[in-house]
Amino acid sequence: MTSSTTTASSTASSTASSTAKASSSSSSLLRKIQHWSGIAFSVFVSLHVMTTMSASLSPSQYDSVLNATRKWYRPSMAIEGLVVFAPLALHMIANTLITLTTKKTESSPSSSSLWKKLHTYSGYALGGLVPLHIFGTRFMHSYAQEFASLNFVLEKEMGLVAGMSYFVLLLSAGVYHSLYGLNIALGYKMKRPLVLACIVGVLAAGYFGLLGFAGYLYPEMMVAVREKHSQFAH
């Protein structure tokens, strides 16, 4: 009876150990997918944010940078799907699976710093903001998102208050999640103060770009921009 009990206990222990190893291996794979897909998508994000920054200079400069960067990530729908949507989908799927499979004790709020929590929460926010952004720019409208079309959306469709609030939230969450997450994925190569300084600098430049979209930085140029609004009205 004792021998049988010992054997059963040993078998159960072995099974539990095998299950734990399989779970650990699966978690490690998901983390790698999360990290590398995030790194890949951050390349697109950097180009996208750089384009937003250029709106602080002039409408024509924005359109020029937009066309130049699109040659890298949108030469065709197939390439765009491969370099933009595939990494984004993989990142979101991996993150969801990690969230569902990670033990509560491993994700306890008390075990994370404020900055790590902000990274997590900004990711949750982007889970809703990014699909909304994709729908609005790629499916809801057929125009090419040139400066005039975005100004039209901001002023005529969303309204300045709602539109600026949305874009500020999208930009803030996107930049913070990307830069802080990139440092995590690369093994914390940069010290936190330097990472935060980079985030602040990029956001400041990005906010100036949003002010450009709203027409506050060069009001004399906005007359010609608003003359194009009629072609975007439905």
Automatic annotation (TrEMBL):
- Superkingdom as given in the UniProt entry: Eukaryota
Q: Which residues form a coiled coil?
A: none
- Identify the InterPro entries for this entry: MCP1, SQR/QFR_C/D
| Keywords assigned by UniProt, alphabetized | Membrane, Transmembrane, Transmembrane helix
Entry annotated with the keyword Transmembrane = yes
- Residue ranges spanning the membrane: these are 36-57, 77-100, 121-140, 160-182, 194-218
Query: Can the keyword Membrane be found in this entry's annotation?
Result: yes
Question: One GO biological process from the UniProt record?
Answer: lipid homeostasis
GO cellular component, alphabetical, reads:
membrane
Q: Write the protein's name.
A: Mitochondrial adapter protein MCP1 transmembrane domain-containing protein
